[in-house]
Amino acid sequence: MDLEVSYSGAGWHARFGERRWPCAIGRGGIRKDKTEGDGATPAGCWPIRRVLYRADRLARPATAFPCDPLQPHDGWCDAPGDPRYNGLVQLPYGGRHERLWRDAEVYDCIVVLGYNDGPVRDGAGSAIFLHVARQDLAPTQGCVALMRGDLLEFLRAASKSTRVCAAPP
Questions:
Q1: Could you tell me the CATH number of the domain that includes residue 146?
Q2: For the whole model, what pTM was predicted?
Q3: How many domains does the chain divide into?
């Protein structure tokens, strides 16, 4: 069973079996031609690779997936042309990157999706995660986001074969 992200008259939702949760997607909508920095959530289905979480804010999520605590020096390379593009890096890092350890709670739980990782295509987009949504469900930079409780409920119920799927309206 997959987590299916779709649009209805009531806004964006993620459906998982009988469960349906409000969600946020990228400010650029859902696009088949995702590129780095466009703010879009890529269209398609992706496997879940692993879960990262802030152990100082959250107990280890109950999940079937590999699960590791984030560290203050964790980052994700988002620099096309960099040999570590679309991968976990340790900070300080010389290439462009985003910090995963944040004051905001959106990265308290990060579900790393298998988007653009086998093989990595330079400039096709990086750091596409399922993560905690802002309280107002504001758009993301390209990720899918659920409210914290909904994300943790999903992780408890998901199996190793579960994918995250998004399609344009």
A1: 2.40.440.10
A2: 0.97
A3: 1
